[in-house]
Design goal:
heterodimer, A: 110 residues, mainly beta, 6-stranded mixed β-sheet, 3-stranded antiparallel β-sheet, B: 120 residues, 7-stranded mixed β-sheet, 11 strands, 48% strand, globular
């Protein structure tokens, strides 16, 4: 199972919106609405930000939103803040209780 | 308070073995599937393995199949990863993870991570 494809980096100014794409195939992203997104700050464990494509865990800011179209999932961060600067990973369920992560995107707040 | 506390990492020679542990508390451990996820230095996340709550079913990434064994002891609320025939490419921070509140196919609880270094 190949890693899902994400842009290596995305940047934006404070207050702007950015979108991170996550492209898979009909075997993973396209088959299930089970994409999750994780935020990871340096030296820290990942933190769940979005699950089941568009649902936010309790405590996660509503500035984070998720969507999907075909084989591509997307994470949008609106009202960008300095603390949003981190690495972001998508993850999709694949058949037989397996998972595949994305290649990761470094978000820089200018 | 929900906690998962990892132990067992370290330096091992190529071809060697190591066992990681993940002790859980604050939730009914046997009710939840548990996974291992790893991250090589400077690289992205890679799902490694999953075990169902009962321990009756296990699943592995192709990269570790036949070399790693996931298991759990529900009487001790502990998850394990036995790693054999270790290779340099297994060098990574290993995390145990599960989901308690976010459906069935996400990871909302993560351990602190434990470093495994495979080198001679």
């Amino acid at each position: 199972q190949s890693a899902l494809t994400q842009p290596a980096s995305v940047s934006g100014s404070p207050g702007q919106s950015i979108t991170i794409s996550c492209t898979g195939s009909s075997s993973d992203v396209g088959s299930y609405n089970l994409v999750s997104w994780y935020q990871q700050h340096p030296g820290k464990a990942p933190k769940l930000t979005i699950y089941e494509g568009s649902k936010r865990p309790s405590g996660v800011s509503n500035r984070f939103s998720g969507s999907k179209s075909g084989n591509t999932a997307s994470l949008t961060i609106s009202g960008l803040q300095t603390e949003d600067e981190a690495d972001y990973y998508c993850c999709s369920y694949v058949t037989s209780s397996a998972y595949v992560f994305g290649t990761g995107t470094k978000v820089t707040v200018l | 308070e929900v906690q998962v506390l990892q132990s067992g990492g370290g330096l091992v020679q190529p071809g060697g073995s190591l066992r990681l542990s993940c002790a859980a508390s604050g939730f009914t451990f046997s009710r939840y599937d548990m996974s291992w996820v790893r991250q090589a230095p400077g690289k992205g996340l890679e799902w490694v393995s999953l075990i169902t709550g009962s321990g009756g079913s296990t699943y592995y990434a192709d990269s570790v199949k036949g070399r790693f064994t996931i298991s759990r002891d529900n009487s001790k609320n502990t998850l394990y990863l036995q790693m054999n025939s270790l290779r340099g490419e297994d060098t990574a921070v290993y995390y145990c993870a599960t989901t308690l509140w976010s459906g069935y196919h996400a990871f909302d609880i993560w351990g602190q991570g434990t470093m495994v270094t495979v080198s001679s």
